[in-house]
């Protein structure tokens, strides 16, 4: 499977997902599966945020 395009929230092609997920949306990936001959749209979301200080 190859990733052909990675977009950040607010870029063209991500506006509906940005409206739906808001600040939780990190990126949208467009992947292509040659075996099944299908394009796939995947998203990366933030599930939890917390404070962290490095050791």
What's this entry about, in short?
The protein has 55 residues and is mainly β. It contains one helix and three strands, in the order βαββ. It has one domain (2-45).
Key features of this structure:
55 residues, mainly beta, 3-stranded antiparallel beta sheet, 1 helix, 13% helix, extended
Notes on the protein architecture:
This protein is mainly β. It has one domain (2-45). It contains 1 helix and 3 strands, in the order E-H-E-E. It has a 3-stranded antiparallel β-sheet with strand order 1-2-3, with helices on one face. The mean pLDDT is 93.
Q: Label the structural class.
A: mainly beta
> Roughly how much helix do the residues carry, as a percent range?
10-25%
Determine the oligomeric state from the structure.
Answer: single chain
General form: extended
- How many helices? The count is 1
Largest sheet: 3 strands, antiparallel
Structurally, how many domains make up the residues?
Answer: 1
Low-confidence stretches: none
Calculate Rg over CA atoms.
Answer: 14 Å
Write the layout of secondary structure elements.
Layout: E1 2-7, H1 15-21, E2 25-33, E3 38-45
Antiparallel strand pairs: 1-2, 2-3
């Amino acid at each position: 499977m190859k990733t052909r395009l990675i977009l950040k929230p607010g870029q063209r092609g991500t506006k509906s997902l940005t409206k739906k997920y808001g600040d939780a949306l990190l990126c949208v990936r467009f992947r292509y599966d040659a075996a099944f001959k299908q394009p796939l749209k995947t998203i990366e979301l933030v599930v939890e945020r917390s404070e962290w200080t490095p050791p």
